[in-house]
Amino acid sequence: MSEMKAHSRSPFPAGMFDDKVFLVTGAGRGMGKLLAQRLAALGGHVGACDVLAERAERTARDIASTGGSAIGLTADVSHESDVARMVATMLSRWGRIDVLVNAAGSYGAAYRVTHETPVEEWDSVFASNVRGSFLCAKTVLPHMAAAGNGRIINFASNAGRSVSPLLGCSYTAAKAAVIGMTRHLSREYARHGVLVNTIAPGPVVGERVSELLGDDGENADLNTQIPIGRLAEPADIVDVVIFMASDASRYMTGAILDVSGGLILA
After folding, report:
1. b/e 162-190 (16+ beta carbons within 10 angstroms → b)
2. Of 48, 112, 213, 242, which has the most beta carbons under 10 Å away?
3. 71: helix, coil or strand?
4. Cα separation of 78 and 138, whole Å?
């Protein structure tokens, strides 16, 4: 069996998320889409959010085609009105949101030095990664607190834990801010039954890294920095998010889980 096929198998039991309601941002492609599909396959109802309507709707259609429950949601998560509308749609459809996964986030050019970074890039990266995660959390938290339970899973990065070997200062700073936000929210809302954690992935095989690196030589150079010797497959990250959303993580809050193949060593 190939490595890709081995990593694509789900280690989780069918039905583990029966009737749980999930909001996943950045679900229009790549890792976010795979996560949305896996959550639905495990019995969850999924709001699949993307900034582009066609991508969000395609994810929802793909889930529905395999018997899953999903709706496509179009939102720029850096706009408060978009987020409010998205959450209202979820509540109207399912009455609650059990788990929010803040997976949306943009990035700038590869290997750009700080003094050549346009301020527009800085603002854009912070808007999607930090402001977006804040607005989504801010909007769902009153509903989770009123219900007495909920999960928020934020996407940081190895960049936020150290520095990025690929992306610039804007990305490193934004992902560090996401970690700080996680710590604050976890302390503030634990007494309401809301658990807030962060996953910090290393580089992942897929469209994003391909766009940034281009040729195989640079990809091979990145591999040499990772003790396990390869970039993550999307399923390597998605499976950890599923664990964080499950009851198995019931005594975790404020945690940062490094899933980077040893790129970040505790």
Report:
1. bbbbbbbbbbbbbbbbbbebbeebbeebe
2. 48
3. strand
4. 12
Show the 3-state SS of 86-151.
Answer: HHHHHHHHHCCCCEEEECCCCCCCCCCCHHHCCHHHHHHHHHHHHHHHHHHHHHHHHHHHHHCCEE
Catalytic positions, written as ranges? 171
Residue pair 180/129 in contact by the 8 Å Cβ criterion = no
Summarised one tens digit per residue, pLDDT across range 198-216 is 999 998 987 666 666 665 5
Question: What does the alpha-carbon distance between residue 234 and residue 49 come to, in Å, rounded to a whole number?
Answer: 18
Q: pLDDT category, 71, cuts 50, 70, 90?
A: very high
Q: Is the pTM for the entire model greater than 0.85?
A: yes
Closest by CA to 130, choosing from 99, 90, 172, 87, is 172
How many residues does this entry show for the chain? 266
Enumerate helices (H) and strands (E) in the chain, giving the number of each: 11, 7
CA distance 58 to 148: 33
**Higher per-residue confidence, 208 vs 244:** 244
